[in-house]
Amino acid sequence: MALAVLRDVVKRYDQKLTVDHVNVKIEEGEIFGLLGPNGAGKSTAISMICGLLKYDSGEIVIDGLSVKEHSLEVKKRIGLVPQDLALYGNLTAAENVRFFGKLYGLRGNLLKERTEEALAFTGLSDRSKEKPATFSGGMKRRLNIACAIMHRPKLIIMDEPTVGIDPQSRNHILESVKALNKLGSTIIYTSHYMEEVAAICDRVAIMDKGHIIACGTEKELRDRVAHEEKIVIRAANITPGLLSELGRHPRINRVETVQDAVELYLPSSQSELQDILFIFAKHEGVIVSLHIDEPDLETLFLSLTGRTLRD
Amino acid sequence: MNIWTIMTGELRRLLRSRTWMLNMILLPIVLIFLLGASLSGVVGGGSPETVNPVKVAIVNTAGQAQVQSAMLDAFLKSDEVQRFIIPVEVQNRGEAESGLRTGKYGYAVIVPQEFDRDIQSGVHAELEFILGKNHSDNTAAGAVFDNFLSEINYKQAAALTLGPEALAAVQPVLTEQPAVQLGNLNNGGKDYTASQFYAASMLLMFLLYSGLTVTGSLFSERENHTLFRINSMPVKGSQLFIGKMLGVGLLTGVQCAAIIFFTDVLFGVYWGNRPWLLMVFCLLMIIASMMLSILACMLCQTSEQATSAVNFLTVAMTFMSGGMLPLPDSWVNSVGAFTVNHWELQAMIKMMLHSGFEQLLPNLLVMSAICLVLISGVVFTYRKVGYQ
């Protein structure tokens, strides 16, 4: 059963299409990744799902309720973890969680229990009486999450929750996402880090310039670009003649150079590897290393847009 | 319930701010003390004045052999007059003038020959007064002899109308009332001190400055991104806005009460005999201040712009209303009537002087009207712009 449905949703800013006829169904209980470069329209889409922005046309339905018509009811079912830290600096961690919990309608013992639960879940129980100013970046991010989950929402939306934090905190957050999902929450996770999305999401939608350009499981998406492999060869003495001859090879689709490496895109690496090594030897190119990349979401994005995710 | 949660959250955050406590409560009290102490000569009546009895040279132009005016003699011997006049008989005008120059006498009266007879026969008669060096002495002695002449005029009028025998029937009336009365004869005999004036004007200025708390509160929510989070929660925009304003308003009320309490206890500032009306005026000022600041927040793009606008309005209105220093009658003073401080300051001073309610009513009506206009402006702007 679909928990969130976006039907032909359009949002314009000054006549510029920011979200362009987006259609997505997010099933209950899944972790849904929204992947795309900065400015792709991910945050705008999320803001519309949360009722923070009005969409120009189309329809968004959460748990059977239209966001436009039942905004407050929809908001009760959602927990938003904003991209920017949204905390009060002069309240303690527990007070922050409690304040936002009250706004979700929690009171008395239930509020107390849920506050403790959210802080324990994010590993902040022992720092609950401290103010966020004394926290590391990762701890602030975790508190940011705690403030959004204490009311046990059906749908948790995490907008780039791992921006600017250390690997340890990132792992903690990714584990938390999985744990929340196991506890029954459906999660929409946006990021421009392909590895994160690939690691935790059941399905992924790739967004660019307001469009959903691909949507499916990671395997489904990889299969779309399985017809093309990438060989990365680090070498010395990469000459224009060498690159030119590689480019003329009938089975090599594309040749790119990145610093001292040559990236070759071709349908199958195995059958052409001998030819490639021969061309290098002919032009006296000294190979330092050779690596055959499996197709990934980055490759898919590149093949669909001609750009990398971090462009 | 959301309004309550937001209001208490706002109170908690503000009360934890030491800067707020220092700026909004301690600073006004220190300022009131400094201004009240240093400008006590500029504002208010200062300490009550006393008039010492004036030595008055009485020159009898009839010469030593003649009897001085019996009427004047009787007048000068009355108890009421002796509180202010010490009559000293001198031989001639020269001696009187010399005594006035040296300060031996404070005032001189020259009594013409046949003064009493002229009065009784209804012909023209006059006393000649020579003023001394001291203004207060001249005022006091002048008032006493004016009183005497009034009585004489009254008696002469009676004699001319009813005949000389009527004089005996005329009761002396003038000595029944004091010739000189000390103190401020306006404002029901009351005056305000510099401390009172500056306590009122600084209270009003800092209530206007509390608008900065409003701008800080509204903009910080945006800058902390907490506004984004709250907007994603089941909270109506109006609930958030009202809750925040109630929190700031309540705290401004506490600030106002603290300033009034501490100035009363520490510096003996008397705030008048109408505490409830004082509360109403303070409430109106808090509303006006908050509405002005909200308008500034909604119409400005950044917190810096809004803060500058509130600062400018506060200083300009305090100055125009004469809150920094009483202004002479000029166009600046006239423009002051268009500021909220003007109506509030006048009302507070009137309350300190125990003015009647009918004198305070215009101020109350004008302030209520100003608040209504500002509230309407805020509602209209909120509907257009919102709080996002």
Structure, explained:
The complex is a heterodimer of chains A (311) and B (388). Chain A has 311 residues and is α/β, with parallel strands linked by helices. In chain A, 37% of the residues lie in helices and 29% in strands. Chain A contains eleven helices and 14 strands. Chain A has a six-stranded mixed β-sheet, sandwiched between helices. With 388 residues, chain B is mostly helical. Helix content of chain B is 65%, strand content 6%. In chain B, strands 2-1-3-4 form a four-stranded mixed β-sheet, with helices on both faces. In chain B, helix 9 packs parallel to helix 13, helix 10 packs parallel to helix 13 (275-299) and helix 13 (275-299) packs parallel to helix 17 (357-385). Chain B is elongated, with a radius of gyration of 32 Å. The A-B interface holds A 50-52, 72-73, 75-76, 78, 80, 82, 84-91, 95, 99-100, 102-105, 147-148 and B 1-2, 5-6, 9, 12-13, 16-17, 224-226, 228-236.
Quick summary of this structure?
The complex is a heterodimer of chains A (311) and B (388). Helices cover 37% and strands 29% of the residues of chain A.
How far is it from the N-terminal to the C-terminal residue of chain A, by CA? Answer: 36 Å
Helix-and-strand structural type of chain B: mainly alpha
Number of E strands of chain A: 14
User: Can you summarize the main beta sheet of chain B?
Assistant: 4 strands, mixed
- What's the tally of helices of chain A? 11
Helix content of chain A: 25-40%
What Rg of chain B, in angstroms, do the CA atoms define? 32 Å
Main β-sheet, spatial strand arrangement of chain B = 2-1-3-4
Content of β-strand of chain B: 5-15%
- What is the subunit arrangement here? heterodimer
Mean pLDDT across all residues of chain A, rounded? 86
Strand percentage of chain A lies at 25-35%
Radius of gyration over C-alpha positions of chain A, nearest whole angstrom: 23 Å
- Shape summary of chain A: elongated
Helical coverage of chain B, percent range: 55-70%
Looking at the structure, what is the overall shape of chain B? elongated
